[in-house]
Specification:
Radius of gyration: 15 Å
Number of domains: 1
Oligomer: single chain
Strand order of the largest sheet: 5-2-1-6-7-11-10
CATH architecture: 3-Layer(aba) Sandwich
CATH class: Alpha Beta
Helix content: 25-40%
Structural class: alpha/beta
Number of helices: 7
CATH topology: Rossmann fold
Order of helices and strands: EHEEEEEHHEHEHEEEHH
Strand content: 15-25%
Length: 189
């Protein structure tokens, strides 16, 4: 399985790390040995909204050949929604089996056309913005509608990561990873 973690300037680091950590434990704990991932960016230099630097492993390469694409959120998503180059780049992920977002990353999935006719969620402060892209906006922590999975606000990234772990490797593996992370059980995951 191949995952593309999309990173961009102004993203919220916890949106990225919250889902990255449980998913990559699938490999580091020996549950999914063929798991591969890349940190994909549209620009060579990436910093989160507070100045933490990230190094992409792929820059401006098409997002084809991945099973899953995961897009974090952050205040910069509003400007990126208007960036035709960035949105066009996200559209290269159309063949990915799953398009996934955390927080306002759903606005970017929406701008790329992936939320048309679908139910989705995002940070509560962006519910109104998300309505122009999706059929319904709901307040759930994690929402799956077909090939799109969206997670609510920043900390929902951890819930999303565990949701995906269970989807890919089963409930027992999810529980083992959750306990290793010392993450309290929640009803939505």
């Amino acid at each position: 399985m191949k995952i593309a973690f999309v990173i961009f300037n102004g993203m919220t680091a916890l949106d990225f790390i919250g889902v990255y950590d449980p998913l990559t434990r699938l490999k580091s704990m020996g549950f999914v040995t063929d798991l591969e991932w890349e940190l994909c960016a549209y620009t060579p230099d990436v910093s989160d909204d507070k100045g933490l630097h990230f190094t992409p492993t792929r820059v401006k390469q098409p997002l084809t050949g991945y099973d899953v694409i995961i897009v974090p959120g952050g205040l910069s998503t509003r400007a990126l929604m208007q960036d035709q180059g960035f949105v066009g780049w996200l559209k290269t992920a159309a063949a990915c089996r799953l398009k996934v977002s955390v927080c306002t990353g759903s606005l970017l999935l929406g701008a790329a056309g992936y939320l048309s006719g679908k139910t989705a969620t995002t940070h509560p402060n962006a519910f109104n913005e998300l309505r122009k892209f999706s059929a319904a906006v709901v307040p759930d922590r994690v929402v799956q509608d077909g090939d799109v999975i969206t997670a609510r606000g920043v900390t929902a990234g951890i819930d999303l990561g565990l949701y995906l772990v269970e989807k890919f490797a089963g409930r027992e593996v999810k529980e083992r990873i959750r306990k290793q992370m010392d993450y309290p059980c929640c009803s939505s995951v």
